[in-house]
Amino acid sequence: MNHSRKLASFCTDLRFETLPDDVIQKAKLCILDYIANIYGSLELKAVSDVITYFQSQDTSGASTALGCGFKTNLHYAAFINGTTAEAIEAQDGYRFGGNHPGAAVIPAALGTAEERRIGGKKVIEAVVAGYETANRPAAAMHPWHTLNGFLPTGTCGAFGAAAAAAKIYDYDEITMLNAIGNAGYILPISMAEHLMGGFTIKIVQGGQAASAGILAAGLAGTGLTGTPQVLEGSHLNGGFTKITSASDPKLEKLSDRLGDTYSIMDIYFKPYTACRHTHGAAQAALELAGEKNFSIENISEINVHTYGIAELAVGKGVKEKDSFVSAQFSIPYVVAACLTDGELSPLQLTEKRISDKSLIRLSEKITVSTDETLNQLYPDKTASRVEIRLKDNQIIKRQIDIPKGDPRDPMTETDIIQKVKQYAGKRDADRIETVISKVLNLENVSDITELTRLI
User: Fold this and answer.
1) Contact 85, 103 (CB under 8 A)
2) How many other CB atoms sit within 10 Å of the CB of residue 355?
3) Any idea where the domains of the chain sit in the sequence?
4) Cα-atom radius of gyration of the chain, to the nearest Å?
5) Cα(57)–Cα(60) distance, rounded to whole angstroms?
6) Are 276 and 381 in contact (CB under 8 A)?
7) Rounded to 5°, angle at Cα 86 from 249 and 4
8) What CATH homologous superfamily does 3-271+416-452 map to?
9) Is residue 427 exposed (0-12), middle (13-18) or buried (19+ Cβ within 10 Å)?
């Protein structure tokens, strides 16, 4: 087997000069999208509260809390920067693993690169290595890891963060393997119970994973060792993928075609600030609202037909006092917001908007159910159909099989640039243009602080 060792060897040997051009471009877009999410997340009170907490601690250090206007120590910065990457729920994702690698990997890569004054080429290497190390164990366990009560963004994200940090630190294969092994011991549990219950601690999973991954790599650098079979397990029967999955993991996915294919190429981007399982319904609702002439007051009921995992994860409704996390993971809220506001952005996640009684009343007219035909399409397609019944019994409907942002219907470079600008709000436009330019030309940035000081 030795899947963990093969993965460590791949990460160690990975070089910018041998990466395919499309992989390099995708890594840049992931970083650019990450920055957009930071800007958008800073609009949330819960995020401000997290940042305020860390500011109240010892903030001495040279690591940038991105978008926050201050520096702190490396671990605090990674925690903050992973939280802001995650909180708005518009982060990138890996459909085959149910995880969001960027929220953990990119804070670790940028933070350790800033610490060492490393350039853009090395950051791209670290991001690609980190995505591979986060995505492969997630894919090996999907969807059983989540169904067994874990969130892979936090758990598997720590492996990716450790590999990214170890790559920046230029470790040899053995030390890289120890970094990944150490991550398996100290990674966050990331209980899915918190997300499903709408509890706002959910937003820190990317930050906790980033910080844990950096720590795992740092400890490996001091000589601390982790099991070399951390992912698949040994005769001791304690491999991560086995003990955190309710089903036998597909271990071949840990190293199959490693180096021939790159999981980063299967990453999707989000045009909406909600769980990806809501996006088919969101897109359908927005298209109907934009094309059909009907009023909200004339809606009698709305039926959303989707696949089983979506009904389970995001089929529930929201109440007036629910959190923005509940709203992000609710098809009824998402569809109601899209029909009412014509968009799903950070503005739809404010406490004032979520508590709007007319919006809640509309969401109460929405039911979500599993359509077996659509269920059979999953995970190849994450399809949803929205059917709106008007008071005159007219029914208008739209089905989305592949939501926007999927590599088969991608958000382009132009789309992601627009997302950065939209989420940046009233920040200095020239400065935002410079940030975008530096990311898109990252291989020419000799010191990553040229970028981090501008975000």
Assistant:
1) yes
2) 14
3) 3-271+416-452, 276-400
4) 21
5) 9
6) no
7) 30
8) 2-methylcitrate dehydratase PrpD (1.10.4100.10)
9) middle
3-state secondary structure of 398: strand
From the centroid of its chain, how far is CA 72?
24
**Rounded alpha-carbon distances, angstroms, from residue 150 to 46, 66, 195, 244, 407:** 22, 28, 10, 8, 26
Residue 69 to residues 76, 275, 313, 454, Cα–Cα distance (Å): 14, 29, 36, 10
* Angstrom distance (rounded) from CA 310 to CA 288: 21
Q: How far apart are CA 131 and CA 156, in angstroms?
A: 10
Asked if 84 contacts 71 with a C-beta cutoff of 8 angstroms, the reply is: no
Tell me which amino acid residue 120 is: G
Residues 299, 393: Cα–Cα separation, whole Å: 9
Exposed e or buried b per residue across 298-328, where buried means at least 16 C-beta atoms within 10 angstroms of its C-beta: ebeebbbbbbbbbbbbbbbbbeeebbbbbbb
Residue 154 has which token pair? Answer: 């936090």
Strands 366-370 and 384-390: unpaired
Residue 400 to residue 392: CA distance in whole angstroms: 25
Tell me which CATH code domain 276-400 carries.
3.30.1330.120
For the chain, the first-to-last Cα distance in angstroms comes to: 43
The tens-digit pLDDT sequence of the chain (455 residues) is 799 999 999 999 999 999 999 999 999 999 999 999 999 999 999 999 999 999 999 778 999 999 999 999 999 999 999 999 999 999 999 999 999 999 999 999 999 999 999 999 999 999 999 999 999 999 999 999 999 999 999 999 999 999 999 999 999 999 999 999 999 999 999 999 999 999 999 999 999 999 999 999 999 999 999 999 999 999 998 999 999 997 889 999 999 999 999 999 999 999 999 999 999 999 999 999 998 889 999 999 999 999 999 999 999 999 988 999 999 999 999 999 999 999 999 999 988 899 899 999 999 999 999 999 999 999 899 999 999 999 999 999 999 999 999 999 999 999 999 999 999 999 999 999 999 999 999 999 999 999 999 99
CB within 8 Å of 251: residues ≥ 6 apart: 1, 3, 140, 231, 232, 241
